[in-house]
Every structure is written in C-alpha cells, then in structure tokens.
Sequence to fold (309 residues):
Amino acid sequence: MHRYIINRLLMLIPVLLGVVFIVFFIMDLAPGDPVYQVAGEQATQQELQELRVKMGLDGNIFTRYIRYIGNMLRGDLGVSYISKRSVMRTYMERLPNTLVLASVTMLVAILISIPLGIIAAIHQNSMKDTVSMILSLLGLSMPNFWLGLLLIMLFSLKLKWVPSGGIDGVKSIILPALTVGMGLAALMTRTTRSSMLDVIRQDYLRTARSKGVTEKKVINKHALKNALIPIITVFGIQFSNVLGGSVLAETVFSWPGVGRLVVDAINQRDIPMVTGALVMTTMLVSVVNLLVDIVYAYVDPRIKAQYTK
Fold:
C-alpha cells in the first residue's frame, strides 16, 4: 500500500507539468494583452516593456513556462496582476470556503441518495421505486442556477429563514449546499439503486436470510457494504468536481470560493492567478482520488490484496 501511494504521488508530477503548460498555452491564445490592462492607456512603450519584464511576460511561451516551473518548485506561484497579492495566499483564503461548501454538499447528497437508492432497490418496480426515479430525473434535469434562484425566492425572500447570499453564519451555507447537493443526490441515488440491485440478488444474501439474519441487517451490513464500490467512485468524482468550484452556485449565492476566483481571474486575464489556482486544485483533486483508492482497499479486501502484491 505504501508503494502504491508513493507511485500515485510521483504520477502527480507529470500531471502538474501538463496542467501548467495547457493553461499557459490557452491563456497565450486568449485575445488582449494583460500588460495594457495593468499599465493603462497612457503608458509609453518603454513603460510597457519594463512592465512586461516585471510581470514575467517577456520571452516566448516556453521560456515563461520553464521560468514558472522553477518558481513553482520553490513554492512561489506568482503575484496576481490585478490584486498585487500572492496567488498562494489568495487561494488559501478562498479554499476553506470551498471545502466547507463541498463537505456540506456531499453530506446532503449522501443523506438523500443512500436511503432513497436502497428503498428503490428493495422495492423494485413498485410505486416507491417509480417515485424515487422520478425525483432523481428531476434532480438531474434542473439547472443549478435555476434551482438556486427558486430556493432564494422561497426561503430567503418570502419566508426569510436564511440569507440569500454571502457568508453570514451557518445559515448562509444551507441554500448553496442544497442547490448543489440535490443535483448530486439524484445521480448518486441512481448509482446506489443500480449497485444494490446487483448485490441483493446474490446467493450469499439468500443464505444469510435462511440462517435467520434479520432483513435490516442483511441490507445494511451485507448488501450495502458490498455495493459501496460504485457509490464511493461516484462520490469521489462528484466531490472532486465540487472542489474544483461550483461556479454557478457560487455566483448565484455570492459565495467566495475557488470557482469564482478562477472565473474572475480568467475574465481579467490574470495569468498567475488562473495558473496557480488550477495547479493547486489539480493537486487537491489528485489527493482526493488517492484517498478514494485507499478507501477502496478498506471496503473490499480483494482490492487491498492487489495493492499489496
């Protein structure tokens, strides 16, 4: 297992190098020049050239790429063109907001999807199953920004139970977490149902029932445990997506997370901020995927045996 973890961490190096190069290449193709944006219209050509050198925009894309990699290895992700602040510091200030939103969102998704998916699988082709699948289809079909606006109109403007946006205590996270979590719950409900249906038909569950094991214990201890691998996979993917930034939800609810930070930086052509934020997010997502693989090993001993070969 230790060897597997080390190998996965080493694989992160070429991934980061590729991400940095792709970001550099795409931002280089984008129209406009950030030097003019920072210097203003009254700047002379000499001032523009001096500012270009100061901002690290002199030379071709490969020269700037190598220079950035060298700085990144020293822990320096650059300084924002717009705010003049350290990219690392700005990102770390926004990261806790995204982590809180992602964690509460996934908690909402789990609390909804796991029970609903189990009920749908146990009562296959019944009214409960049909209602569960209809709710899942609705959750998958509703755009986040539309659902978020509806929740604001109902719970914030009309009932005045929670704030409509920003960060103002625990209540402020309820609406954005529900907005993103309900869409994820719809997908995870379908995954849970499908995985449970594959498991509950197995012979070992019939054997457990014949030995007098209660139905509740059969489902919760035996069936659900063996159905967890696909559920954990979907959980890891969706958690990584939320960590990457739920841009629409963060925009609707004015949530100062990583997603809004990246979008604002792209609109302003703030290359150091875009590159640094994506590099940090790539590292974060890679760590989450590694943790998901480790959880696999503890849920299914067969996978652990493959890792330890």
